[in-house]
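Recap slide: Pyridoxamine 5'-phosphate oxidase family protein, sequence and predicted structure.
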Amino acid sequence: MRRKDREQTEEFAWQVADAAPFACLGLVTPEGEPYQVPISPAREGNCFYFHCALEGKKLDCLAVNSKVCLSFVTGVEPIPEQYTTRYQSALVFGTAYPVTQEEEKRLALKRICQRYAASAMDGYQEETNRLLSRTGIWKIQVESITGKEKK
């Protein structure tokens, strides 16, 4: 990292990833162009799960290059009079794999629901049963994570 004064620990980076309301998933299109899309990932150990449709541009990208990047940002606070912005960020590099086993798909959807719909967990199994066959689940195996903070 160029700005060593902003570099944070790996533990800090995991905390930012866990606290961020969403992440941006960076991919490369089959034509070699950059492509980024917001997702709602949930962490399980050193992996992130995300759900998606069974077809589309994300999957087209992943079919030709499974290397991905996730960016997370929290604590964004513009400071106009100083022409800057405070923030905390985490950047993840890893490899994405389709989840094919039903047990792992259910675990992934449970983690996603626990993160984004914790107050509605009583109905998640019924919803999972209803949507499982038409929902794509991907697992990102983290290869590196870095954290940064602008105070």
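Strands lie at 7-8, 23-28, 34-39, 42-44, 47-52, 67-79, 84-98, 136-150.
The CA atoms of residues 92 and 145 lie 4 Å apart.
(End of recap.)
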